[in-house]
Amino acid sequence: MSGTTTAARARLPRTVLRVHRTALIVWGAFVTGLIGWLVWLNERTVDSVRAAEAACSRGPWTCVDLIEALRYSEPTGYVGFLTCYGFLAVAAFTGGALIGRELESRTARLAWTQGVTPTRWLAAKLTVPALALVLGGTALVLAFRWGWAAHRDLMGDHWSFADVFVARGPASVAYALCALAVGTLIALLLRRALPALAVSVAAMWLLNLVLERCRPALWPSVTRTSPQPFELPDNVWQREWGRTATGDHYATYHPASHFWPLHLVETGIVLAVAVLATAAAFAVLRRRTAF
Q: Where does residue 177 rank: exposed (0-12), middle (13-18), buried (19+ CB within 10 A)?
């Protein structure tokens, strides 16, 4: 192995960082901003909400503190939404800029002539953003779990809500890594930035939609039957309610303890898609660059 080839391979990760430093800065600012927002909500905004509650408890029964509570719950919900669906931006960036633009402009082929094999080029292209997504995504998940649970009496979002469900665990990171893999595969297939961007976003949106619809079936639900009417706790995810052929009342639901089984099964499915997409991307690259 020549010294030039060795040097080119050693410079590859630094080159990826330099070329995409703006995207990494934006990602870091995004993560830091959302975490800072959660800290502000829980350390500052919540004080005014609690003060409004105390004032209402001393005032007439018509006193309403809903508006003050919304100042806390709605922004926290926005953080959960952005944490959950940030993978769409990852898909757009991967298909459009990280891979698609370099294939369309042929700068990737230039790198391949500098002693860097296509496989090493793609591995470096994926490793750097994957590390950033894992580190930043994990920080976001931990911060959101803390913020969502800190003042549950002020939060209206149930644990089964789509964005809350994903943002409270590793599925959020799994979706981001899957978007990276799917965007890469589509960019290698299309080799044009804008079409790859659009198709990558559409593919990840469809995957999320399908899993969201199938989510209740990812783990066996609980069915309760009684001859008398009954009420379920507020923290269950109710799926069905009615009467049997014999006239008994029944309810099918997921208790709160089913969050982790449901969440981890979905995480596993998303990671499996990511692995398959990554393997397919390397296979497509090797086939198209074989001489």
A: buried
